[in-house]
Design goal:
CATH class of the largest domain: Alpha Beta
Distance between the termini: 58 Å
CATH superfamily of the largest domain: Nitrogenase molybdenum iron protein domain
Oligomer: single chain
Number of strands: 8
CATH architecture of the largest domain: 3-Layer(aba) Sandwich
Low-confidence stretches: 1-12
Mean pLDDT: 92
Shape: globular
Strand content: 5-15%
Number of domains: 2
């Protein structure tokens, strides 16, 4: 038997190496790809997804990849294009069949009417954090299934079966999350940055303001004081905060308003307890009391 295995073609057992920009994409791709896919995750979950340093080590990771899946909506605009250019890998070029931009397959929210730098570091295509709506996760899972089936048709049945298993689990969890969040509709919150826009929309929360006055712009004293007054006027219940910005201003606001800060992870592995997509949404839907 061992001799027979040695004589079989190496390609029979080869996995496709799929590079992905963020951990949630890696987990989802592995869920659908199973044993046929090796995922190469470029960014870490606790990093600011807007600002990744395109280190030489990342170039080597994409140079030999068989495909690339990105979040899109210009979330990676500052770091992924330089990696793609320097890697000189035709399989990760934007016009190739082995390249996938997930943002092209979901409805983006918060598209700016006017795009100028006076509005801060805005995303002209809309809010890129669409992975925080559980309905979008199911859409993306199907998109990845179709993508893998196209570039690796001999294993298409495996990808379809894996997707069906994932969908069955995910649909049951969505019912659970909907039930858990039903009584939270209308809860008023403030954020640091609008990371949770899709989560807020999905569950009917109400965001009344952001700690940063404009996207990518640190809060000034004037803006902070105005925000404190707004919190008192609107009877805001929580400050929800991402894991990668400084919490100094949020802590100050909390001390002046007596409302708690809730740390809200944006991706898999952004906290030690978040190991997969189910645990991410279990956390998010349990954090709002």
């Amino acid at each position: 038997m061992r001799l027979l295995l040695l004589l079989l073609p190496l390609g029979l057992f080869a996995q496709l190496n799929i590079a992905v920009s963020y951990p949630y994409i890696g987990v989802l791709t592995k869920e659908i790809g199973g044993k046929n896919i090796n995922t190469i995750v470029l960014a870490k979950g606790n990093w600011d997804p807007h600002f990744i340093v395109p280190r030489p080590s990342l170039i080597s990771k994409v140079r030999n990849a068989d495909g690339l899946i990105m979040n899109g909506a210009q979330l990676e605009i500052g770091w992924l294009p330089p990696l793609m250019k320097r890697a000189s890998n035709p399989k990760i070029k934007m016009n190739s069949a082995t390249f996938l931009n997930l943002s092209h397959h979901v409805a983006l929210i918060s598209k700016p009417k006017n795009f100028t730098r006076e509005g801060g570091d805005i995303h002209p295509d809309g809010n890129p954090h669409f992975n925080l709506d559980p309905k979008n996760i199911l859409i993306l899972a199907n998109v990845i299934k179709e993508y893998l089936s196209l570039i690796d048709s001999k294993n298409a049945k495996n990808y379809t079966n894996n997707y069906d298993k994932f969908r069955n689990v995910w649909e049951k969890k969505m019912l659970e999350w909907d039930l858990r969040m039903q009584s939270k509709k209308g809860t008023k919150i403030i954020q640091y940055h609008d990371v949770l826009g899709y989560f807020i929309k999905a569950y009917g929360l109400q965001s009344v303001g952001n700690i940063e006055p404009l996207p990518g712009i640190p809060p000034s004293s004037k803006h902070t004081f105005n925000l404190i007054e707004l919190i008192k006027k609107e009877k805001v219940v929580y400050i929800v905060h991402d894991v990668y910005h400084s919490m100094k201003t949020a802590e100050y606001i909390s001390s002046k308003t007596d409302i708690p800060i809730i740390l809200m992870p944006h991706d898999v592995q952004s906290l030690n307890s978040i190991g997969n997509l189910v645990s991410l949404f279990d956390y998010l839907t349990s954090a709002i009391k």
